[in-house]
């Protein structure tokens, strides 16, 4: 449940071809430390907009599911031109409704994020294809450093031979 289906080093690795090869038609993205560094308000990285445009042009559906507060979520949703669900309650809640609104099933969706205990666990619980990315910043909530240590430990012990 805590093992991602794939680990990548940058979002740009998720090309339409990469997604199609795995039968994926949609991408549900985490916000903080996945799309933008935690706590940052802007500016919008040009490369990020280009990557999102390339997915949309290929007919890939994209949305944000985040535990962040509504104000911050809306701020980034508007700037990135994406539907966003705030205060999602990951890992237990938040994915099913968004995936349904995309008109897809969980199996057709990549859930992408930087945290095992919210993004990967939540995505695995609904049966999505989970993708772990390195965090954009080490900043986060006060308990994040402990979480990161646990994550590294889990990734080591569950690594495939
Ligand atoms: Mg995150």
Automatic annotation (TrEMBL):
Pfam families: Hydrolase. InterPro entries: HAD-like_sf, HAD-SF_hydro_IIIA, HAD_sf, PGPP1/Gep4. GO terms for molecular function: phosphatidylglycerophosphatase activity. This is HAD superfamily (Subfamily IIIA) phosphatase, TIGR01668. It comes from Marinithermus hydrothermalis (strain DSM 14884 / JCM 11576 / T1).
